[in-house]
Structures are given as C-alpha cells and as structure tokens.
Amino acid sequence: MTQITPLAASVLILSYLCYRIFRTYWKLRYVPGPFWARITNLQRILWVKSGKSHEIYQNIHKKYGDFVRIGPDAVSISDPAAISTMYPMRPGFPKSKFYRAFMPYIKNGLLPAIFTTQDEKQHKQLKSPIAALYSLTNVVTFEVFVNDVLDILFQEFDKRYAGSQTSFDLGDWLQYFAFDVMGTMTFSSRYGFLETGTDVGGMLQAIWNFMLGVAPMTQIPWVDKLWNKNHIVSMFKPQTSSPILKVVADRTSERQQKAASNTTKETKEVNKKDFLSRFLEIRETNSSVPPWAITAWTFSNVIAGSDSTAVVMRTVFYNLLAHPDSLSRLYKELTGYEKQNGLSRPYPRWSEVSDLPYLDACINEAIRLHPPFCLPLERVVPEGGVTICGQFFEAGTIVGMNPYVVNRHQPTFGDDVDSWRPERWLNHNEEHRRKLEQSVMTFGAGRRVCLGKYVALLEIKKIVPALFLNYEIELLDPKSYEVENCYFFRQKGINVRIKRRDQKTSILAQESKKI
Ligand code: HEM
Description:
The protein is an alpha+beta fold.
C-alpha cells in the first residue's frame, strides 16, 4: 500500500483550504466590499464589538456604493428603492439566522417570538390572532394607561427636580417612562422605575448586557447555536434567565390564577383593558394558539417595545433642546392650537396632537436620524434567486438593509442627512412626503414591519407635548450627549434642569378635562 507522506498530506490540506477560500471569495465576487469580508465574517463581529458599527456601515457604503459585500454570503444594500423587493408583504423572503441569537434559551428549548421567528408558518400562527390589537383604532384605547404613567412621571419630576432645579439625565427618565408604560399596557402594573427613579433590580442593565452578548453572535449564528443554544453545553454553564422573562412569567401566572378564580370586580375590570387580558381571551377562543404564546406575546411587547421607544423619545427631546429654533416653533404650534381649539391639560389627548404638522415633522426626523436597530435587517434570498435594483442574487444569499444607512441615503433625503432638520418633512407635496416616509427603515418594512409602531407613536406624541407644555427644560451641555451601538443603538447624557412653566400663561384650556 502506498504511504501518504506528511508533505503530500500538507499539500492536500492546503490545496483544499485554498479551494474553499477561493470558492467563498468567488460566490459574490461582483459585489464590492472590504477585502476580509470576501472570505470571513470575523470583520463583521469586530464592527459590532467596536460600538461604532453604524458609522462603519455608513462609511463602507460611501466608499463602495449601494451594494456592499459584508461577509462571504452577506450583502448590505442602502438604496430605499430596494425596500419593496427585499421586504415584501407576501411570505417567501424569510429572516436569517441572525434573529435566532435573540431567542431566550429556556429549559424546554428556544422561546420564539413574533420578532425573532424565522419560520413563516409559526410567524403567522403567532401574529395573526393578535395583529388587530396593534391597529391604530385599538391602540388609542390604551391612551388612559399612558396618562396614568404621565401622572407618576410628573409627580416625580415635581418632587425631585422642578422645585430644586437639581440636574438629571432626562434620557434615563424617558427610558423608565417607556418601560413603565409598556408594563402598564401589558399587565396593568409598573416595574417601579419611575417611583424609585432607578433601574429596579438592575433589569435595564441586564437587558443591555444581554444585547452586548448577543450582538456579536448574530454575525456568527453557528457559534451561538453551539455555545448558547446547546443542551449539552448548557448543563455545564450557570443557569441565567432573562430578568424580563421572569417578570413576564410571574405576571402572567398571577393573572391566570386570578382569572381562574375570577371573583373580584377589579379582576373583571382589568381583564377588559390591558394586553395580557386580551391575549388570554384570544387564547381561550383560539385552539390553534400554542400554550407558550402568552409568554411570547407579553415578552415581545416588553422587550421589543420599551427600549426602542425610549430611543426615539431621547432623540426628539435632545434635538429639540439642542435646537431652540425648532423647540420654539413646536411650542408656538402647540400653544397656537391651544388658543384656537383648546388642549386637554395637563396632557393633550391623542386626538388633539395626532395631526400637528410640526410635531409630526420633529417625530419623523427623530425616527429617521436615530433608529434603535442599527445592523442590516437580514433576509435570505428565496429559491430561484432575486433581482434587487438590477443586481441578481442567488438563493441563500443573505441580504439586508441597515436602517441607519438607508435613513441617510443622500439622493433621497438630501445632502444634510446627518443634520436635524424637521423642515425636510414640510414644504413638499404629499407625494414627496409619502416617498420620504416609505424610505425610512426605522420600523422595518413589509410583512415583518414593526407591530407596535402605533403604540410607540402614541407614547411619543403624548409625552413630547405634555412635557414641553408643562415644563421649561434647559439642556446643560449639548456635548455630553453620547451614542453607543451594538445592534441596539442608544444614547446617554441628556443632562437637564427643569422648572414648571408659569401656569397662567401656558394653561389656556384649564377647563378641558383630562381623559
Ligand atoms: C420607536 C419604537 C420602535 C421601533 C423603532 C421598532 C422597530 C422595529 C423594527 C425595525 C422591527 C422589524 C425588525 C426586522 O425586520 O428585523 C420591529 C418589529 C417588531 N416590533 Fe417594533 N419597534 C418599536 C416599538 C415597538 C413596540 C412599542 C412594540 C410592541 C408593543 C413592538 C413590537 C414589535 C414586534 C412584535 C415586531 C415583530 C413583527 C414581525 O416580525 O411581524 N415594537 N420593530
């Protein structure tokens, strides 16, 4: 028998490796991009870990154009004209394994959610029964919950800051507010962030730490599968569970027990109102809903809906405070409306502020400037391949659009894409405005577009007028504002002092009742 010499073996292995590298490189050779992206995903991990991936993505698109190869199988695309092809309303363009990394690993396996599932059948099974709850018509029925939480926010502001003029980070309070609103809407109870003015039980920090750990894994999902979502490995690792998942599970079982006894009048009343009671009702009447759906739905609400909304709120407040001209124009719009039509106090109603042009322009500009999710929203090219803006991609290729980059597409939004300019949403005909709106990727697009968009808009359109009409807010140092990004993109350092506005001059519609 002929012996394989070590030299021959080395040559064979080397040739095989060269062949693999060449094949990997060749696959998407026609798409420009950084050199290492042609053969490995390692660079993408480093981008995520740098905390500056939003800037890196913007720079590579500036350098290479609308199509950039970001990994052996992955392409980032920046032209908004591609949105309808890559994110269609019909099924058949599924999410990539990127999203699997976000699924909590519990003792029975992975807990899927509407946001994270790749399985389109499961997505339908989870989303269809509850989609109507998130329609604008239904969401406005939750306005009363936002008012309840605004009550607490105002009480705390008055008690802690308005009289003493002590400075504080408004961004932290907007986050507490967003979480407590979502808790109230979902379970009719708050976490207590506002009452205590702190991150109770370190829950918010734990969510951020979770994001920091998961974000690099999204770029190499096979490592996540081996290391984090593996039954054998998990036996040797300390058991950690998401603190939010624990809260969600506790509140759900409390409610289920109460509903089972169904004795008190209070329970019956609550059951008519919040998301949890509506979810329980849906499950009772729909046998196709799996038992774990309640946890998946409530978990989705809290995890997908709280921090993200806080990010947009911070962007609106920071930019209005840092641009006094904008703030003064908004204030004039609100008080002008109040003079003519009256505004409910202390918090204007949704019906009064849902359609104010300058408020809308400021919120649209904040949504454009600072999307909370800032890596490509990855999809897998289906069987038969697809042509995107004239470029063909074969089945299995991962394509994605990064909201941060798409929202800064110069030919669409103008040369000053990095600047705060709410006016870009005004002074144009309706058709142009609609085109701009459809070119913003902050809420995603198509079949997997954000389910909670109206919940977020309700909160934002309530809190912005409420705070500016009732308080004078002074931004102490615009330069202390900082952003950090893993996949989730958040800010800190909105240090302010506040005082109550002179009630006589600003309250023109005292008599209008609070909801
Ligand atoms: C300003 C606030 C928000 C932003 C910017 C935002 C952004 C997004 C984005 C970008 C997606 C799509 C992700 C993808 O395609 O990869 C998404 C999906 C989703 N969001 Fe939001 N979101 C916000 C608020 C909310 C709220 C308040 C809720 C719940 C009440 C929520 C629930 C969901 C759910 C359930 C999905 C999955 C939808 C599906 O796959 O069919 N979001 N969101």
